[in-house]
Amino acid sequence: MDEQQRSLDWYGKLHTRRVDLVGDYAGNELFVVEGDSLLLNCFNDPKLDFDAGFQLLHAVYNVEHFLQNLRQRRCNFHIVFFEDHKSLCVPPKAASHTTSKFLLARAAVKRHLEANVADLTLPGIELRTFKSTSDEAFARYLWTTGVYFVMCHDGAFNNSTQASSISDHRINGSAPRDEFERSRKARFRGMILLLLSWGYNIALINGLEWHDTKVMTEVVEGHRLQKYLTPLITGHASVPTESPSSSPIGDKPGFDHVHALQSLQHMIQNREISREHGDSHEVHPEKWTQRRYIITIAMDMMLAKEATQRTLVAAFLEHAALLEVVPLASRRLRHAIANAKSTSETQHFIDESASIVCSLLQDNSFYRILKSTAKCDLSDLLDGRLFSSVLACPEQLAAPRGQTKAIFEEYAMALDHLSGNHIELLKSTKPATQSTESQFIEDQRLGSTILPFSNHVFDKHLAPIKLSTSPRKRESPEAGRIFQEVSHWHNARRPLSKVAPPMTPWEKKKAARKVNFFMAEMQAYAASLTNATGSSLEPETVTVGPKILAEAQLDVAKENAIPTKSKSSKPEQSSKSKNKPSKKETREKDMAVKRAEKDDLEANKTLAAWQIVRKNLEAEVTPARRHQKLSDYLRDRSDSQQRVLGAEIRFHMICDLVEILKGYGPSSPEIEPLSIMALLWTSIRKTVHTPGLTKTIVNSLKAILDIFHLPQIEMEMPSGDRAFAYDPKLTLPRDNPPVNPHDDLRFQLLYCGPYMDRNLDSAPDPRVPFEPDGWQRAVLDELDAERSLFIVAPTSAGKTFISFYAMEKILRSNDENVLVYVAPTKALVNQIAAEIQARFKKSFKHPGKSVWAIHTRDYRVNNPLVPTVGNPEKFSSWLSDIQESSGRKLTTIQHAHRYSDLRKFIYRPPKKFAFNGLSEQTTFGILGLDNIEDLAFMHPVASLVNRSRGMPPDLSLEARDCLLLYDAMARHQDEEFPVRDSLSPTSNLRSKIVRKADIIQWEAALKEVLQKWMDDENSPFSKVVEDLSKPLYGSKEAAATEKEPSNGESVASGNTLIRQSDSETHSLYRTTLPLLYKLHERNALPAIFFNYDRSKCVGICGALIQQLEEAESSWKESNAGWKTKLKGFEQWKKLKAKADSKKPAKQASKKKGNEGDNIKEDKMLDAQSDDSNPYAGFDPEDPVDGYHFANKSRAEASELQDYFKELRRREVPEMLLTGLMRGIGVHHAGMNRKYRQTVEVLFRKGYLRVVIATGTLALGINMPCATVVFSGDSVFLTALNFRQAAGRAGRRGFDLLGNVVFHGLSE
């Protein structure tokens, strides 16, 4: 098998995905349009006549129209031509004699684009030419420009574009008809395979469709195929190419076309042209364009080849003159046919002329001289129909004869001066009285049926679009009637408004029951939602009128209020009246005494309860678990209780951390002392600001800081001291304790970044129950002023409260106002409705109204809320103009910083993995996934591998990232690119305790210098990126040293067999469990795995279930303890059944004969039925601990059974229910709605710890998690989707740091 056939066969096995290049894939990323693929696609237009009536302008229009369509949809692209692809632009069904015409069209289009692309309303487009795809300059161009993908042809011609395979038999339906077609297809596909091997994706230009604002086409992803393509690329360069016909320029011995051009230019510019055989005529040098020069020299060469062609040359020159004077609308000509002989001569002449003109245009030295003095107008170089009409009946052409003759004379004089050829204007050969049929075609196009639209607000923003919508056929004569919208434009299954027939009582009862079911589900869904602190939402009763502030909020309002002087002040009271308290003062004093007594009583109760709780915690021997339980206990206390106990509980937690550090040693490798020290230091920092500090606590904290060499913290010594309610019995380590080896600043930057104070101009505000940042208070001010507002802030920045604050204002205003919340997905619609249900309650005067309602294309609830914007600047500008046109002002508030940082990692799965159950012991006090085998930390700057793409405006660096970046820049600085002392951490971070606000300022200074390095190719930027990428390279090299199993080889995993496969899908199925095992060990669950393929989401879930079940079965077969437990369970069941059968007889009989015999058995049964009995709740079919990811403490078994009952009633597959039992859920838009809601509820409760989802969970859904995993690559994983999906990790109020893991993505 030759290399061509091998490449063709391999290409036929590729699979593609049909996407919208603009919305789903490219966005504004730069891509390349291969020039000859573009021309082949445009030249293959069946309406394009290159045979008898060669109209070059039509071909140029097709190309321009295609490019304009791309730009109207805001595509960013370059056009690249390859010189060895010249012949590939000829369509497959083109006649052989038309090859020269297509090559001329290629040369003319290329020169036309080179000269005019900047004037075609196509800014940003560049045109490049390379020798071949193997040209080193081309590879360098791809690297320096940061091309995202390449749009090209694959040599196939078929109207079908919906299949997912691109095999030959689907496209052509038969084998290639000749060797040239096979060669052309091999060249296109060889180029595709080469680009795929370089890691570039391919978008097929054949089959591309324009759907309004969308560009739909097939995409082949190169990163997935890169490692398989190397053996196939060797045959790419050896594919033969059909060369164009030999250049006719040298046919005339001694003819120098460059000298002829220079001579002609000299004569034209100096007005020296005159006829040798006639009168002189005026010459206009400014009108001599590239078309005139090219045609003149080409006709001179035609006459040199065959002098008898004077008639045809004269006709051609007249045709050239007519091109300048005849309007385009008057050139809609029929093809004129005189006779077969003349037609053959004419076509031969056009073919020869096209070949000569093409050769002239392809001669770079010739064209370089030409374009220096003449304007390019090559797009309308030749019109075959006009030329034929000149020959057949010139008198029928409606053209000013005077202008035509003048231009013709200039052509004729130029030829006369070049070679002495005398050409005369053609004369009519028909009698003047003979009538001839008009050669013009009547314009039968219909007038516009849509009224023009213009608006001073919209015109500015819609100017670059002006798209024509997709054509729709009129289905019937009635289609012209007045339009009435009776169904949603997305879904015609259900009318929006339809008069339903009266319901029967049974139907009314059924409908009411359905509504009750829905409302019950919504209430259960609402109960699972939590606020920013993780607590359940408590509904607030809303009444019409101003909000009544709570006592604490009133205190805040008074503190923030500006004191004002009273307009009428009372005269000062006498000294006698001052000493005597008023009745009001006496009453307030008595109330204060009673309140103090009540507070003392509550404090005593709180202390008593704390003593009991702390005593019970002594049974917990593990300090890490005791610390977690104390943290949960403190979080659940009220503000008044925390004022009493806060300092003591925090000190107990600090003592637990000290115990953990005391246990550090060779036998405890799971402890990372510096991470524990960071948590310890942060706990001390928070404790010193807690009410209730005592001298004992402060002295102990100072001793802890000293012994572990931690940064010092200023502490005020309390005036009093009191004994602990429960003594923690702190003992400090004395012999070789682990100590902090870093200086204070470096320790904070490396290990304390996630714990830093995140307040950004925060201050109390009575309008909200938390301390809002400055930008949040500005939002509240704008809402209170009833002004329009546009907010730009990243995920987890704290935007959620805004919409609910606006909702509350609407509910309090009156009973009529409505707030519309627009959400992009149905999942978010349901969540918002449930959250409103959980937050607000309101009683309306008139029945039939509710606080919320839902209106989607599928259903409506309660008879009838802000989307994510990808281009905020343009949207803000458009929205501002609209608001100003209505007399309103729009305020745009931007906040660029997340509350919690995200730390990125790349997962490289092990070649072998033995799963023997999840470990019971997890790490404690470690944030992030650092120092885990198979997980490599990815510094944000390490992703800037291509300078041409620039630095993303939202590139965020945490404290540790900034320090690592500064160290790398300092190591690689040189004399030309120094790192100033002002950029050092000591110069930027002057406070002893570093805050998040300080890091933000330092980050901006570092990025400013880094951007300058990035813009200069001579800077050490590449060395900095390489340095920060070492963790990735190190992990990659370590993985490469492992033995790679052969294809299909099975690896023993305990007693579980995990099959190896080269398939990406099977790789995800095989490697997800090892990743989950690592996340579980690091306590980095719950996690959401994002995969944008629905079938793969379900497949990953199924693979996890299968692997867990197989491992569990193997464990059960080999574990003696399990077998013993099963025997005991079977015995217990028999005893229970026997006892149940004897109960009635026992109650009826009062004989004493057999009482003694049953005493022992009854006691055993009573003991077995006790709650402490291990068999009481035992079910051998339930997943065994260690072989599931569910947190069973977060959901009752009865609650789960209720969910399963409802899901089975809805015929949800058993596999998905099994997944829920093992703590694994799937979420995508194709799932049953009840199942999706169950997954969301159980995930929020903490029962489910693994969810595999498409993008449905990325857009605003309240499902906070510790880790987000991007499982497998996808064309739909755009920058916007990444930001939205990654934002689920590290949500404000839940996590101090979010983990983002890339699994199965190209590197």
TrEMBL record:
It holds the Pfam family DEAD. One of its GO terms (cellular component) is cytoplasm. Residues 582-598, 1152-1161 have a biased composition (Basic and acidic residues). Residues 1160-1307 form the Helicase C-terminal domain. GO terms for molecular function: ATP binding; helicase activity; hydrolase activity; nucleic acid binding. Signal peptide: none annotated. SMART domains: HELICc. Transmembrane segments: none annotated. Gene3D superfamilies: P-loop containing nucleotide triphosphate hydrolases. Keywords: ATP-binding, Helicase, Hydrolase, Nucleotide-binding. Residues 559-598, 1137-1161 are annotated as: Disordered. It comes from the Eukaryota. This is Helicase C-terminal domain-containing protein.
